[in-house]
Design goal:
single chain, alpha/beta, Rossmann fold, 4-stranded antiparallel β-sheet, 26% strand, binds adenosine-5'-triphosphate, membrane, ABC_transporter-like_CS, ATP binding, cell cycle, ATP-binding
């Protein structure tokens, strides 16, 4: 599903954000990516999104070597990924329904398909009753549910969540984790970068730890660890 082989990414200022990284994530895995600030987590996500390119090594997504794809094919690669961010990134002038529908419109889905899919994902994240609300009328947890619904509406093969509970109180954070668990159970691979020690420790999922651009730990049922 996701494979990194000997990936090196050095920024122009000489910082080696990733230094010979090897990772293999199978379809259906749930993986926490942990590491202190500056360890290289965001760089890894940006490489998968093809926002930046590696200096060395190979990256595969759904069996495609994404280091080789042309600029024209980048949207196709990005469609394999649904992204969720700490700060939700919803469009404030659109309703919940419209925010999700918009993600389908921009990839050219038909109106019929949109009418079919949006209520489904809204139901999945438990927000059918908020379809006509605007983001500023929702709690943080509800906004994050909308952003998850938007991320999965085009059926990505992998959901990447960058610190998705970072802005939420502990109870709401757990509600979001349950939504992510649910989506994973339905077959979507989930990769979540996080600093939320208690969540990682309780969930007992695979943990990949980065430190100074290197993988320092990869445990099947891991914990957050004490090195950070
Ligand atoms: N555009 C850039 N130009 C130069 N250096 C960068 C750039 N982006 C990141 N870095 C450096 O690369 C290293 C890895 O950064 P990265 O953002 O990947 O870390 P991170 O693990 O995501 O951190 P955080 O938990 O704070 O988000 C850091 O030393 C950072 O300062």
């Amino acid at each position: 599903m996701i494979r990194l082989q000997n990936v090196v990414k050095e920024y122009k200022n000489g910082v080696k954000a990733l230094n010979d990284v090897n990772i293999h994530i199978e379809k259906g895995d749930f993986v926490f990516l942990v590491g202190s600030s500056g360890a290289g987590k965001s760089t890894l996500i940006k490489l998968l999104m093809k926002e930046i390119d590696p200096d060395k090594g190979k990256l595969y997504l759904a069996n495609k070597d994404i280091t080789k794809v042309t600029n024209r094919s980048i949207p196709e690669i990005r469609r394999l990924i649904g992204m969720v961010f700490q700060d939700f990134r919803l469009l404030q002038n659109k309703t919940v329904y419209e925010n999700i529908a918009f993600a389908m419109e921009i990839i050219g889905q038909s109106a019929k398909e949109i009418r079919r899919q949006v209520p489904k994902v809204l139901n999945l994240v438990g927000l059918s009753h908020k379809a006509d609300s605007f983001p500023n009328q929702l709690s943080g947890g509800e906004q994050q549910r909308v952003s998850i619904a938007r991320a999965i509406v085009n059926n990505p093969t992998v959901l990447i969540a960058d610190e998705p509970t970072g802005n939420l109180d502990p109870d709401t954070a757990w509600e979001i984790m349950n939504v992510l668990k649910d989506i994973n159970r339905r077959g979507t691979t989930v990769l979540m970068a996080t600093h939320a020690k208690d969540i990682v420790d309780v969930m007992q999922k695979r943990v990949i730890a980065l430190s100074e651009g290197k993988v320092t730990r990869d445990d099947r049922k891991g914990v957050y660890g004490y090195e950070f």
